[in-house]
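Entry 14. Structure prediction run on the chain below.
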Amino acid sequence: MSHNSEISKAEQRRLAVASATLGPWRAAAAVGGLGGGVALALGTIGDGIGLGVLAWALSVALMLFFMVGGAGAVLGDRPGAGSGDDRRIRRWAAAHPWRVAAVPGALMVAADVVVRQALTTQGIFASVWDGLWRGVMVVAVVGLVGRFSRGRG
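Output returned:
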């Protein structure tokens, strides 16, 4: 699995999704929930309670969730990281952080568009735009964490 030329594009997509599933999603849910709660409290203090504030807080929660989970997925092979297959997938993820980062980034875009369409009167293009820039932020953070963590012990 060390050479990309030996792996088809479809297999690379499956590896990216498989590696993303190995992230610390419970911890990511805790961080996202905490961040979303703080965002909701700050939004309520500033603007009062409303669906727009709730949508913003959920977007913050989702963004933190996907950043923490995705970053944990690209950190690669760790001692005690599970079965041999898990270790191979983690090594692949550590070697290809940008491909892995695309998975939580795409999920962030989709989830954010759904939240904004369900809770606000925002048009579809504005919802997609908001989702895209948040997805790009998730990809950037996850990809950079993976890229710069390769040199660690």
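The two ends are 22 Å apart (CA to CA).
Filed with the rest of this week's runs.
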